[in-house]
UniProtKB/TrEMBL annotation:
Name recorded for this polypeptide: RNA polymerase sigma-70 factor, ECF subfamily
Pfam family, one: Sigma70_r2
Domain RNA polymerase sigma-70 region: 36-102
Species of provenance: Dyadobacter koreensis
InterPro entries attached to this UniProt entry: RNA_pol_sigma-70-like (IPR039425), RNA_pol_sigma-70_dom (IPR014284), RNA_pol_sigma70_r2 (IPR007627), RNA_pol_sigma70_r4_t2 (IPR013249), RNA_pol_sigma_r2 (IPR013325), RNA_pol_sigma_r3/r4-like (IPR013324), WH-like_DNA-bd_sf (IPR036388)
Source domain of life: Bacteria
Amino acid sequence: MHENILTANQPMIEIKEERDLMERCAGGDREAFASLYTGHLSSLIRYIFLFTRSRELSEEIVQDVFVKIWEKKEGLLYVQSFQPYIFKTAKNLLLDHLRREQTENRYRNLTGPFSEESTDQTDSEIIYGQYFQLAQDAINQLPEKRKQIFELKTKEELSLDEIAEKLSISKSVVKKQLYAATNFVKDYLRKHGEMTTDMVIIMYFLSGIQ
């Protein structure tokens, strides 16, 4: 990724033109897809870079975002606005990355000194694992019903309506419980962890589930 990609400003695509491009892309038009790609590339990279602070990782995630967009291009017919859609896709891919980091850290912790690769573990990987463990500690302290609602939302990615139906409670109760759970976890992270970029990433994801 070139140095100026993080600061370059690209002309915004007008709403009417963007809708036309999405419809054409949904039909398999590669030129329309390329226009969407170039029109949103720099803003998406800047957005991702805010959380990763890594140009290499940001570039990798951007490519994954647009691969997913193309693979599910038919769904663009139902997308209201392209930028929020790709930002949400990027957010999910970032979360997947953090989950992979957590899994790898757990494996390294188990293998410990018996693994030669353990000596290559970076500080950032350790931090990711620590903050996810902090978040899990906080979740485990939630009242049982609140914890169940929180995990149905964050792990199973159910909608508020789906959670309400599954637990036979009202949607308003689900919202109140999620709000309380999310605030508790975020407060716990603030109190027990140093506020770093990695912490900001996790808290950003938590803020998106309310």
